[in-house]
Design a protein that fits this description.
CATH class of one domain: Alpha Beta
Number of helices: 6
Largest sheet: 4 strands, mixed
Structural class: alpha+beta
Strand content: 15-25%
CATH superfamily of one domain: VSR Endonuclease
Strand order of the largest sheet: 1-2-3-4
Radius of gyration: 22 Å
Order of helices and strands: HHHEEEHEHH
Helix content: 25-40%
Oligomer: single chain
Number of strands: 4
Distance between the termini: 83 Å
């Protein structure tokens, strides 16, 4: 005899945990989170190679892999610089996909993110050039917050 007396076992947070509010936090239940977890397990070769060079702050910059930014999941994300790095394979050369990429980039830019697209061929052929492009984008003086710059209060002239 089973613990369930012939009933099907509880699923998706039902059972004892449901009485205490189980089922996981609302953030782990988002579809983007599940998609990101799946994509981390199914990374392409260029993504794996780049991730091996980015992970663990090897460049002095912290990146996340397959990071959800609803409604999207981005390849790599640096929160400190609000930089998204996307790796584009051959499928991105398709006109339809290029249009979807442009729409996605606009939507992310409107949310304040900077999107850097790198062709997969560059990652495979010249990893150092790809890393240099990423570091240059993060360190760009145009992206840095205004440090030590005090703007006049209330519209006063200098």
């Amino acid at each position: 005899m089973t613990d369930f007396d012939g009933l099907t076992p509880p699923r998706d947070g039902e059972g004892d945990r449901a009485k205490r509010g189980g089922g996981g936090s609302r953030f782990t239940r988002r579809p983007e989170t599940y998609a990101a977890r799946k994509l981390r397990k199914e990374m392409t070769l260029p993504e794996v190679l780049l991730w091996n060079r980015l992970r663990g702050k090897k460049l002095g910059i912290r990146f996340r892999s397959q990071h959800p930014i609803p409604p999207y999941v981005v390849d790599f994300y640096c929160a400190g610089a609000k930089l998204i790095v996307e790796i584009d394979g051959a499928v991105h050369d398709n006109a339809d996909q290029a249009g979807r990429d442009a729409k996605r980039d606009r939507a992310l830019s409107e949310k304040g993110y900077d999107v850097l697209r790198l062709p997969a061929s560059v990652i495979l052929r010249d990893m150092e050039a790809a890393l240099d492009a990423i570091v240059a984008r993060v360190e760009s003086p145009l992206r840095q917050p205004l440090r030590g710059c005090h703007l006049p209060a209330g519209g006063e002239d200098l």
